[in-house]
From TrEMBL:
<dbReference type="InterPro" id="IPR051681">
    <property type="entry name" value="Ser/Thr_Kinases-Pseudokinases"/>
</dbReference>
<keyword id="KW-0732">Signal</keyword>
<keyword id="KW-1133">Transmembrane helix</keyword>
<dbReference type="InterPro" id="IPR008271">
    <property type="entry name" value="Ser/Thr_kinase_AS"/>
</dbReference>
<dbReference type="Pfam" id="PF07714">
    <property type="entry name" value="PK_Tyr_Ser-Thr"/>
</dbReference>
<keyword id="KW-0812">Transmembrane</keyword>
<dbReference type="GO" id="GO:0004674">
    <property type="term" value="F:protein serine/threonine kinase activity"/>
</dbReference>
<dbReference type="InterPro" id="IPR011009">
    <property type="entry name" value="Kinase-like_dom_sf"/>
</dbReference>
<feature type="signal peptide">
    <location>
        <begin position="1"/>
        <end position="16"/>
    </location>
</feature>
<dbReference type="InterPro" id="IPR001245">
    <property type="entry name" value="Ser-Thr/Tyr_kinase_cat_dom"/>
</dbReference>
<dbReference type="GO" id="GO:0005524">
    <property type="term" value="F:ATP binding"/>
</dbReference>
<dbReference type="InterPro" id="IPR000719">
    <property type="entry name" value="Prot_kinase_dom"/>
</dbReference>
<keyword id="KW-0472">Membrane</keyword>
<feature type="domain" description="Protein kinase">
    <location>
        <begin position="390"/>
        <end position="620"/>
    </location>
</feature>
<protein>
    <recommendedName>
        <fullName>Protein kinase domain-containing protein</fullName>
    </recommendedName>
</protein>
<feature type="transmembrane region" description="Helical">
    <location>
        <begin position="288"/>
        <end position="309"/>
    </location>
</feature>
Length: 620
């Protein structure tokens, strides 16, 4: 098939962004999140099933033709039988272990592409749009829209997929009229993991006549409840989530080994199973008398530890701040908020808010516009986080108007960006920050930092919560580990990821220009996937707007000479004009405020050194 030429490119795009609950896997936390919404933005079906199980929902048990070995091996140490688990838990374990259920209750293996997990193989709307598929747009009771793929060939749909499913038999494939992709769901839905084969033939002249298509799709509602292609759910009903996967028989073993991941299950699901369902296999043989020396030994250890701690507590107290700050030093330039604080304040609980005088400063004429954004924006619906649920741990960086903290929220490390808590903060700054928050919430792309939520207890205490990346930014990583990276394997992959993020921004209506693209505005995941951050400057360059003046280490002689003839100094120019003069004179500015000379080739000027997409693609 023609779409086979794309797997290599597809694999390079398949590395996933870290989803909101990824750190829960590492922390083995099973707490649910008020910010989690199962609507197609993710494929964390196990998380949704866990939430509905905790809410008291039930479902029929699954009687599989055979329980997968990987599931048995996962449950055996817990002395748990798959067939004894509740129906919702069965489905959660299957999905988390990398399986969906085909007709006849046949478990089918699914392999996420790249470094993705089963929680992030959902295909996003922009990805479906990017292959020129069209949509059926439907309304939902909560005011959001549900989307279904409408006009789309099998080639197009398979080129969006982030997973590969093993082959299976579906006797009703040719007559099944469900949708190949869907996004939108009842927040209280109990999702299925039903795998169907969409098979049809279509006369397409561009493909040489009648063409056969076969697309595997995971459906989260049963076939009997799935709306037909081209139709919308009945009034008062929600949409669904449908996830397309490529067929295993379209790929070689070599490709699978290099470009897919075999799920082993997440730690938080194992913790859930252990806490709620594990049986003690040793109850009958364990001698309770052995508890006596164990308890006594534990008491001795605890007592000695407490005594030593008391002696050293005062001696080490003054070192705690510096030590904690050094733990994640690579992350200090996070979010481009300026230079790191030399003495960050350590907070094991929430920072105190300003008094009523400061609050009243923010409750000005501009606050109405800010509240309209925070409370009325469609992008922020369901994204508000209780302020008291955020624990501010340490400051990472501080700039002229804002700061970034490492925080804990819902058992995971997150980054929190906020305005400085000062009386000098203007209402328009708060409004601009709210606009930045709204924009960040609207951006969904594998190479753009993920927005988690927004919190506030007053307008002067407005916080944007984002993914946290302990590896820090690209600038620091290249400085420390650049010699370990190759262009062919690493750097070009990072560059392509950033370019894809920019392409996504520029394809918006209206196009979005980042305006502050630099290496310390690119964060790195543990897999060295680039994540673009800091969209605070995107809308500050309209007519009449101002930006901060530059504080260069040294103004280039060429610029000084040029301005001297005009009887003016570089320091006296507005920030925008400073940047314009520097660029026009052949200089760019590094993240640490140094002007660096740029030389053009082929008699070009600074105005025409950009490389077109066509030339970039032609270069291979």
């Amino acid at each position: 098939m023609q779409w086979r030429v794309l797997p290599a490119l597809l694999a390079s795009l398949a590395h996933a962004q870290t989803v909101t609950f990824r750190s829960l896997e590492e922390a083995s936390s099973t707490s649910s999140s008020s910010s989690f919404v199962f609507n197609g933005s993710n494929s964390d079906i196990a998380r949704q099933l866990y939430i509905r199980h905790q809410a008291g929902d039930t479902g029929d048990r699954v009687s599989l033709t055979a329980v997968p070995t990987v599931v048995k091996d996962r449950l055996d140490p817990l002395n748990v039988e798959f067939n004894d688990l509740p129906g919702l838990v069965q489905r959660a374990v299957l999905w988390d272990s990398g399986f969906a259920i085909a007709p006849g209750n046949v478990p089918v293996q699914i392999w996420p592409m790249g470094d993705r997990s089963m929680a992030d193989i959902a295909v996003q709307q922009y990805e479906v749009s990017s292959v020129q598929c069209t949509f059926t747009i439907c309304s939902q009771p909560d005011g959001d829209i549900a989307l279904y793929s409408h006009t789309c060939t099998g080639y197009q749909m398979q080129n969006t997929s982030h997973c590969v499913a093993d082959t299976f038999s579906d006797g009703a494939a040719a007559t099944y009229l469900g949708n190949m992709w869907a996004s939108g769901a009842d927040p209280d839905v109990v999702p299925e993991i039903e795998l169907r084969d969409h098979t049809w033939s279509e006369n397409i002249s561009a493909f040489g006549g009648v063409t056969d298509f076969s697309v595997y799709v995971v459906h989260t509602v049963s076939s009997s409840k799935e709306v037909a292609w081209g139709a919308c759910p009945a009034d008062g009903e929600y949409g669904a989530v449908s996830i397309p996967c490529a067929r295993r028989d379209q790929f070689t073993d070599e490709f699978m080994a290099q470009n897919t991941t075999t799920p082993t299950g997440s730690a938080w699901v194992t913790t859930w199973l252990t806490d709620e369902f594990a049986n003690d296999a040793y109850d009958d043989s364990f001698n309770l008398i052995l508890l006596v020396p164990i308890i006594l030994g534990a008491l001795v250890v605890v007592g000695l530890g407490w005594f030593c701690w008391r002696r050293r507590a005062k001696q080490s107290a003054h070192k705690s701040t510096a030590a904690a700050f050094e733990v994640e030093a690579d992350s200090v330039p996070f979010m481009a908020m300026g230079t790191p604080e030399l003495h960050p304040t350590m907070m094991s609980s929430h920072p105190t808010t300003q008094g009523s005088t400061v609050s009243s400063h923010y409750e000005s004429a501009g606050s109405n516009k800010t509240l309209k954004i925070l409370l009325g924006s469609a992008q922020l619906q369901g994204k508000r986080i209780p302020f008291d649920s955020i624990v501010f741990e340490r400051a990472l960086s501080k700039g002229a108007s804002g700061e970034v903290w490492v925080c804990e929220y819902n058992g995971q490390k997150v980054a929190a960006k906020r305005l400085l808590q000062s009386k000098e903060q203007k209402a328009e700054n708060v409004q601009a920050f709210a606009e930045e928050i709204e924009l960040s919430a609207s951006l969904v792309h594998p190479h753009i930092v993920e927005f988690i939520g927004v919190a506030w207890n007053s307008l002067n205490n407005l916080v944007m919560v984002l993914e946290f990346f302990p590896k820090g930014n690209l600038q620091n990583y290249l400085h420390k580990h650049g010699d370990l990276l190759s262009w062919a394997r690493d750097k070009i992959h990072m560059a392509v990821g950033v370019a894809q993020a920019l392409e996504y921004l520029h394809a918006r209506t209206p196009p979005l220009i980042h305006r502050d693209l630099k290496s310390n505005n690119i964060l790195l995941t543990d897999q060295l996937e680039p994540k673009l951050i800091d969209f605070g400057l995107h809308d500050r360059y309209a007519a009449g707007d101002e930006v901060d003046e530059l504080a260069l280490e040294a103004v280039p002689d060429a610029v000084q000479s040029r301005l001297h003839s005009l009887s003016t100094n570089f320091e006296e120019l507005p920030g925008l004009l400073q940047r314009a003069v520097l660029w026009d004179s052949g200089f760019a500015v590094t993240s640490d405020d140094r002007a660096m000379q740029v030389w053009t080739l082929d008699n070009r000027t600074m105005a025409d050194i950009a490389i077109s997409v066509e030339k970039f693609n032609a270069s291979g």
